[in-house]
Design a protein that fits this description.
14 helices; 81% helix; mainly alpha
Amino acid sequence: MALSTHATATLSVVTAMTRRLGRALGDLVPIIAVVAFFQVVVLRQPFPQLGEVVFGGVLVVLGLMLFVEGLEIGLFPIGEAMADALAQKGSLFWLLAFSFALGFSATVAEPALIAVSDEAARIAADGDLIVNSDGARASYALGLRLSVAFSVGFAIVVGVLRILKGWPLYYLIIGGYALVMLMTIVAPREIIGLAYDAGGVTTSTITVPLVTALGVGLSSVIKGRSPLVDGFGLIAFASLLPMVFVMAYGLLVPVGSDFGSVLIATLRDVAPIVFLILFFQVLVLKRPIPHLRRVILGGVYVVIGLALFLMGLQKALFPLGEVMATQLSSPALVGGEDGLPAGWWSYYWIYAF
């Protein structure tokens, strides 16, 4: 009987993981189809380093599956429970402190921001905008990530205050984008595009569910607030303020692996979230962590999945994207007289891609 129960539980876990794997693969099918179409049909060239591309793609799928599974069974439930408990506790200081820490730590660990920051540092080094050394690139990428993370933490604090005070959302949004336009005028030209992209990469896999749970949970327990009207809008602030802070970072800062190392870096990136949860759950709320084994298992999934995901990006998607962009913009493909493009319409394959 016990053996049968164990076999049933094992089969259930395997079925669930297989379903997750299929879902992760399904999410990546469109980009795989686009890349394969342009490489084989348009460029008519074999994939460069096909083995590395396939291996990196497998890592991306496995990493995405484990990462999402770890978030759902570990971080999301405890994040929602802590937000509700802090709101009921009634302490404005701890609520705002938790809001800032949540936004900061979740953004620091955001996979999209990690990837974009590393790529921005590499491009800046190749363009002689910073010193081309490992230390300089790491420092630039870390500074960019911390600037974005601080801005998201500050944005969440503003959003929580809006819910508490009942401020109209559109006043803050209009004022924020007016500030973005003013910053665009004075910011270095090299940082503007990156700053605008930072508003998108910060609201991704980790940040959106946690921040949304905070806003909806907070508006649900405050008298006179509606989760539908007041609970949403935090993501808008989290997208807006990074643009301002990254352009400010550009004004202040001169702009001119193996799996083991990736795993260690991932542990360092996820550590702020772990310390945040332990601090508020044990010291502030003074409660035991519910379903501790599931939370630990979810944390392990998150770390391994994030490391595999980043390693897959570095080995497959970034190099392949650069090669294909170069091939699509080659004079032989765009045509024109003497191999030169006739005009903007000559780049139609790039636009389609």
